[in-house]
Amino acid sequence: MNHQNTQKSKYSWILILCIIVGLVSSLYLVFERHQIEKSQNHIENIVDYDAVLRANAFEKRSQQEAFDALRNAGVTAFAIYDRTLEKAKDAGQVKVLSSEEMDAVRVNGASVKHGATYVALISGKEGYYKEIREDLYHRIGKDKVKELNTSIGPVLELYGATADSYLKMNLGISKLQAQEVANRGFNVIVRPTNYRNVTSDDLQYVFKRLEGIPHVTGMIFAGKEALGAPNLTDETLELLHKNHIPLVGIEAVNQLQYEPQQGFLEMAAKDNYSVGRVYTIAKDELKKITPEEAAQRFYISDIERNIRFNLFPMYETGVNNETVLQTTINYIGMTTEKLSTKGYEFGPADIYPPYTPNPLLVVITMIGAIALFVYVAQMLVPMRKHTQLVAFFGISLVSVVLFIITSGTLITQIWALSSAIMAPVGA
After folding, report:
1. Model confidence at 143, in pLDDT bands (50, 70, 90)?
2. Of 186, 200, 311, 374, which one has the fewest beta carbons inside 10 Å?
3. What's the CA gap between 392 and 161, in Å, rounded?
4. Is 222 helix (H, G, I), strand (E, B) or coil?
């Protein structure tokens, strides 16, 4: 009997006390973090604006009916990208003519150049023509862009590259397009690409286009570089703050980190990681899955990984005898319905504020984890109470010193992992 009592009381009660205090401290930290996450329940549902316009061109319903259907499905914002001549041509904003087509046009005071590309004004779209002219002057210089006076109105002559190169060249964000999105009652998500040999003037040019546009609720960089990379990202961040535009990063395919974009992580760190995170599905991947599965992926990402920006890609072919646009609307609606049942709301996304837990509480929690480690260890390797306390205080001292002289992340992660293993083993 005495032997049994000795076995039962072989551990130190100091360890038990430290485990209990550490548990209470950790529960408070969990509660504190839960309150922050609970209050961040607004999600921005985004679709590519140009893609919607293209898809709607093949439908009987009007543009207004299409946008009403998207709004009812839960879409709150549209992404606008750098315009290209190809996009502007497809949208009916300008005409793009070859030198052969220009032979039939009377040009005052000049002649048509063989192999040149021409951009002509469309009546009623003067604003778009002026923006594109301004973009071309800024991108390739006025010496490479010549404006002609012709029988069909003003025409821009581009010479020195192939027509295909000019058609696909990024020009810039369109203020008129951004205003068009806002006028339809949606938020604007801006997706600029970086400039080659980017300058401060380039950055000012981008943000000048956004002046006066209401409801710009995020900037997500397109391509492999952040706007301003590699040397002017500080200025980009300053302009974002000045214009009250949240910085948003794309979640990587392997999750829980950002898609590699030169300069973005540096910007996020300087912003104390108080930045948004957007989830999307690659178009090649979207082809392989059903709308139901696509909706489930967005739903899981939002509730499990605290995603607050959803960028929904368009299906390239319709499913179940539906059009491309309707198939896309259906899976967005499914996602919205699933999230609504969990209490989420939709509109400008919540950006998580910088959160730093109380260091003293973190240390107390870590000491509780160390006590748990020693407590379980003495079950496996018999130790005297004195030895247990020496081990406990020694490991605690080393861990606290490491916590103080480092950022604390690694050592706390080690003891968090230890707790995850030791708690069930001890039980």
Report:
1. confident
2. 200
3. 72
4. strand
Residue 277, Ramachandran bin (φ over 0: left; ψ between -120 and 50: alpha; else beta): beta
Q: How far is CA 200 from CA 102, 205, 222, 268, in A?
A: 37, 9, 19, 20
Each residue's pLDDT tens digit, 11-56: 789 999 999 999 999 999 999 888 877 778 899 999 999 999 999 9
Strands 145-150, 153-158: pairing is antiparallel
pLDDT at residue 312 in the model: 98
Strand order through the sheet with 153-158: 94-98, 117-121, 153-158, 145-150, 107-108
Q: Report whether 173 contacts 87 (CB < 8 A).
A: no
Inter-residue contact 216 to 210 (CB < 8 Å): yes
Whether 407 contacts 51, CB under 8 Å: no
Q: Which residues contact 224 (CB under 8 A, 6 or more apart)?
A: 260, 261, 262
Q: Residue 75 carries which DSSP code?
A: -
Q: Is the pTM of this model over 0.90?
A: no
Distance CA(416)–CA(360), nearest Å, equals 16
CA separation for the pair 337, 128 (Å, rounded): 38
Q: Determine the longest span between alpha carbons in the chain, in angstroms.
A: 115
- Here the tokens at position 132 are 């594109």
Residue 146 pairs in a beta bridge with: 157
β strands within 88-151, DSSP E? 94-98, 107-108, 117-121, 145-150
